[in-house]
Amino acid sequence: RSPPRPLARRCPLAAASRLLDRSMPRSPSPSPPAGQPSTASDAGDAVKAIYVFANEKGGMTDINRGKINEIIAQLSQSSAYTAKLLKSDRRVDETVALLQQKLQLSDEGARRSAAAVVARQVAALEASRRADRCCAVIDFDMFYAAVEIRDRPELADKPVAVGGIGMISTANYVARRWGVRSAMPGFIGQALCRRGPEFGMPRGELVFVRPDFAKYTAVAEVARAIFREYDPKMTAGSLDEAYLDLTDHLHKRARDGGGGGAG
Questions:
Q1: What's the gap between Cα 34 and its chain centre?
Q2: Contacts 24+ apart (CB under 8 A), 103-106
Q3: Which of 88, 128, 143, 258 lies 20 to 30 Å from 1, alpha-carbon distance?
């Protein structure tokens, strides 16, 4: 048997890009984008682009996202990690600029050929779409924090983060009013709470709770036992996520005349 073709050759979008490549004249690469953000506002936008923890989660509506991101930028801008992320972000910008240039310089025939390649792939994907199964994705809300607050109800009205000064695994909805969320370094979450008056919140003190994964696993197993009543083959991507195919359960309910519960 002949060896498999490289992935780039099998990918229809890569094929479309090659069609455009052949039609365009050679020209110098565009100059790279500007380097570090020059203003606080620019820094806030850049932080939102490169840090997942600078973007919103549930419970973060109507907070001063711009000011919070400026504070994140101030706390992060001198780190080697930020420099690495900004470098990666610039490479993405350069790639986008090259693709835009490629599109502008391509002739109409090459564009039509590329569009046809993409259209065929879209049609093939649509033809393979299945609508005969009913599936559900279950994602627990602030799971680790919810378990801790269950056991320590006095924390319910305080900003709580499960994790430590290095990294936050989960934050409750109270903490999210200060912009604190999962995947955020703990020292940034702590600073945001203490600098709350800068963005319309009172000064707060973030309560760190050490993770207890044995406890979270036990709670997750209780939930999974319930899920298996609906789908014995359910799968779990993590402690707080589950994927269920409910089709057989729904067919059984229809045959049995409806009713609540898995039975």
A1: 26
A2: 103/20, 105/23, 105/24, 105/25, 105/27, 106/20, 106/23, 106/24
A3: 128
User: For 212-244, how does the pLDDT look when each residue is reduced to its tens digit (9 = 90+)?
Assistant: 999 999 999 999 999 999 999 999 989 999 999
The residues that are catalytic are: 241
Task: Indicate the Cα dihedral angle 71, 75, 81, 82, nearest 10°.
Answer: 40
**pLDDT beyond 70 at 24:** no
Residue 190: what pLDDT? 98
pLDDT, tens digit (0-9, with 9 covering 90-100), for 101-113: 988 888 888 888 9
Q: For the CA atoms of the chain, what is the radius of gyration?
A: 25
Q: What CA–CA distance (Å, rounded) separates 1 from 7?
A: 17
Could you tell me which residues are beta bridge partners of residue 168?
163
Strand (E) positions, 91-227?
135-139, 160-163, 168-171, 207-209
Q: Which residues contact 40 (CB under 8 A, 6 or more apart)?
A: 70, 73, 74
From the list 216, 213, 204, the residue with the least C-alpha distance to 175 is: 204
The answer to whether the Cα torsion of 253, 258, 262, 263 is positive or negative is: negative
Note whether 81 and 55 are within 8 A (CB): no
